[in-house]
Amino acid sequence: MKILFIYFYVIDNSLVVESIYSSKLTEDSSTFARKNCESSDYYYEAIEIDVIEGGCYNLISNSTIDTYGYIYKNYFYSIDSTINLVSENDRGFRSNQFELITQLQTNTKYILVVTTNDPNVTGVFSLLVTGPKNVKFNRISKYLSVWSKINEI
Description:
By secondary structure, this protein is mainly β. 6% of the residues lie in helices and 54% in strands.
């Protein structure tokens, strides 16, 4: 399930745009090991973020589950989650919610990975992204990151 809303407002004479994405982690979601050598029982969703205008963006999760967020540049490899890692956060916003504040540029592929702090946890989540322009979200296929890695070998 994917829901997208876009809101506009002004702070200090600057236009701020909100983009909202909603989905859920289920037992059918892809899994990976959050850190090398951990169990691979962390459900995740990988979402490509298309940046329309470069600038500082704030990515915040909202959920009843304890979320953990990663942002990658170019590709996300589920078999080695340290490759291409730009930033990660667990409880930067509110208790049990991540907040990633980062510079994003146009013509660059960014992948946001939403997962959980504990293994085998499922639930609904929303993402709020604020920045100079709206962003576009594209859920990445369940097996895309693994096949990308295999094709490069």
